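Morning F.,

Quick status update on the modeling queue. The single chain you submitted on Monday has been processed. Sequence for confirmation:
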Amino acid sequence: MEFITLKCKNCNKKLMTYIPPGSRKYKSPLKTCKKCGTEYLDPRCHEIAAEGLPPDTYSITSNVIMGIVGGLILWRGLYLFTVHQFGTSENIQWLYPTVFTVMGIFCILCAIYQIIIILTGIKRKKFEKLRQESEERLQDYNYAKSLVSLGYSVPEEYL
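Structure tokens below.
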């Protein structure tokens, strides 16, 4: 696992350490160094109005696959409860089956939850609200110019 450390270009203060690509946060990527006040781009943050959403954001298929994998993990956990694991002390015979069972149930529940919020439109409403907030920020000419000056790609309609 590779960590990336971002330092201020002006004062060399450590701003953050993160794992790429990491999660995508949909909020303003424009941040300010607390030490010297220099503006910088947070690579974890994205303007949804400028970049759009990844194509698999509303994918039910990937969540069905996650549910199937969770089912297989659950099945394996339940199966392990029925066998004796040679070379493992009696005190921890329950550990592997329990971990597998809990992981399987967790994967299945997460998949079901994601499918429900996609089908009911809750996820779409959430991202629509984030897109509107992003458009409001990008309507500010100075904000959009600041992003461009730091190397962020902003569509022409906001400049």
